[in-house]
Amino acid sequence: MSHAEALIEIARDRLETGVAAEIGVWRGETSEKLLDDLPLSLLHCVDPYVADPEYDRYANDPRRLFRRTPTQEDWEGLYRATTKHLSRFGTRVRWHRARSRHASLTVPNGSLDFAFVDANHRYWWCKADIDAWTPKIRPGGRLLGHDWFTQKGLEVDGIRWPVQCAVIEAFGDAYELDESSGIWWMEIP
Predict the structure, then answer these.
(1) Residue 162, phi then psi, degrees to nearest 5
(2) Is there a contact between 144 and 183 (Cβ–Cβ < 8 Å)?
(3) How far from the centroid of its chain's Cα atoms is residue 123's Cα?
(4) Which residue ranges make up each domain of the chain?
(5) pLDDT tens per residue, the chain (189 residues)?
(6) 3-187 architecture in CATH?
């Protein structure tokens, strides 16, 4: 089962408002799957699409896509391609071309059934995403994230498992984990 399929199964039974967010859209593949397979009326798609060597260093490693360190022109091209790819969903997609924390300020607290954090995997960025988006989830909704195991064996800022450290610091042992997909989640009380 892909991470998108696991995400859909974990999020499906928590839908009430039909409003969700994906933080870290990249090429839009997960957004497309969410919009195709869930009855969402609105998906907030959050990604800055900006060249930033410090951010890029620990994001989804943009060199995989661009085969080199990406320029702003590369990011513009990816943004255009992704928005075109998701354009068939019309008003069901709301783009937030901004850093996660800034985008979260435009989303009302308690308005989301779920938010899926799959952006920069560096500890400080992941922790900031958790802090910014947790209040946006309605009671009974879920904050979810990916890449629990992605950084296996890699130390970033002296932290061996940055996503895990950020989640555990935020939620203690109250989170849940699907080990096969690396998706973690927290049900919001």
Answers:
(1) -60, -40
(2) yes
(3) 14
(4) 3-187
(5) 888 999 999 999 999 999 999 999 999 999 999 999 999 999 999 999 998 876 654 455 555 666 677 889 999 999 999 999 999 999 999 999 999 999 999 999 999 999 999 988 888 889 999 999 999 999 999 999 988 875 545 555 566 688 888 999 999 999 999 988 989 999 999
(6) 3-Layer(aba) Sandwich (3.40)
